[in-house]
């Protein structure tokens, strides 16, 4: 069990989300940076989908009420255990009574804290993720707060060397982009792409769009060159999903994310490919986004490369635990 000493309303219990529920009007939810949670779980010997904490309000402070292994990935943060610095992306061991503090990120937005065995909360619709809009899942359907006690599933400790994982190349590339203030994401044309003016399409691909303070787990509202359709479109509400880039009448795009609305009537200009969604999760307010057009074949190759890179890390970690 762990005790939360200080937190924020947007620090949430999340796993990899609810699959195949959007047709019922239920968002996928789950970790915004799903690869970071996967890697945190693999580093400590959990299944990829074990529930952990998604942290986006800092500092986060907690106390361990038993001996346990844990790992923090995602955004690059300063982390201390009983005031002693410990590394990110590394399996660490805590003893009962020790206090963990995770400070505001130096780069990135969201950190992921995984515990050996995973956080033990009820499954709802096949997931332990928090759905803030619906007020269910996770820990009582809300963010964790001071005084909360979270149970961790029992597990057999893994014995082995506690060494850091080598972050995939795309993580290192993102750090450079964050430092430069502009993050690139790859997109495919969406259903109403052909209804936008040539000037709008050229602007969408050639000029950066800034993340505004209206950014949360539902989506990011962006600011930049207005995007207009050739004529006003009256669309019926239709299905949308994480990654959909919608354009309201004012012309400023909105990117749907983990708790994306399941339907909407704004025209869609593009869709962020699945393997780049985590990059948006680590893009802070005020940072720019550059949309990069790709073909469907390029997108499929990018997704295969993404999963191959994760699979390579998983295999290396699995061999270490078996050693």
UniProtKB/TrEMBL annotation:
Q: Which SUPFAM superfamilies match?
A: Cyclophilin-like
Q: Where is the Carboxyltransferase domain?
A: 23-307
Entry-linked Gene3D superfamilies: Cyclophilin-like
- Please name the InterPro entries in this protein's record: CT_A_B, Cyclophilin-like_dom_sf, PxpC
Q: Write down a Pfam family by its short name.
A: CT_A_B
Which controlled-vocabulary keywords does the entry list? ATP-binding, Hydrolase, Nucleotide-binding
Q: Is the keyword Mitochondrion assigned to this protein?
A: no
The UniProt GO MF terms for this protein read: ATP binding; hydrolase activity
**Transmembrane helix is among the record's keywords:** no
Q: Which domain of life is it from?
A: Bacteria
Listed name of the protein: Carboxyltransferase domain-containing protein
């Amino acid at each position: 069990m762990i005790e939360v000493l200080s937190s924020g309303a947007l620090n949430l219990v999340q796993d990899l989300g609810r699959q195949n529920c959007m047709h019922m009007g239920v968002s996928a939810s789950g970790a915004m940076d799903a690869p970071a949670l996967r890697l945190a779980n693999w580093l400590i010997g959990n299944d990829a989908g074990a529930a952990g904490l998604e942290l986006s309000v800092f500092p986060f402070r907690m106390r361990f009420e038993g001996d346990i292994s844990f790992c923090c990935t995602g955004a690059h943060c300063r982390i201390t255990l009983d005031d002693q610095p410990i590394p990110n992306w590394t399996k660490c061991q805590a003893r009962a009574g020790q206090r963990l503090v995770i400070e505001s990120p130096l780069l990135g937005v969201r950190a992921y804290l995984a515990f050996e065995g995973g956080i033990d909360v009820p499954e709802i619709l096949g997931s332990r993720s928090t759905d803030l809009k619906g007020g269910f899942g996770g820990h009582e359907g809300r963010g964790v707060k001071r005084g909360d006690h979270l149970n961790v599933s029992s597990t057999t400790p893994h014995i082995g060397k506690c060494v850091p994982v080598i972050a995939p190349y795309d993580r290192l590339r993102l750090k450079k982009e964050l430092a430069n203030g502009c993050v690139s994401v790859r997109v495919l044309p969406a259903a109403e792409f052909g209804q936008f003016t040539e000037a709008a399409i050229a602007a969408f691909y050639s000029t950066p769009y800034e993340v505004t303070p209206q950014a949360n787990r539902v989506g990011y509202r962006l600011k930049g060159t207005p995007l207009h359709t050739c004529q006003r479109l009256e669309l019926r509400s239709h299905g949308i999903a994480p990654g959909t880039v919608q354009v309201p009448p004012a012309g400023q795009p909105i990117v749907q994310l983990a708790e994306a609305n399941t339907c909407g009537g704004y025209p869609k200009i593009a869709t962020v490919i699945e393997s780049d969604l985590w990059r948006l999760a680590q893009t802070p307010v005020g940072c720019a986004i550059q949309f990069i057009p790709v073909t469907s074949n390029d997108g499929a190759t990018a997704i295969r490369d993404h999963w191959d890179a994760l699979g390579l890390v998983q295999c290396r970690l699995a061999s270490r635990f078996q050693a």
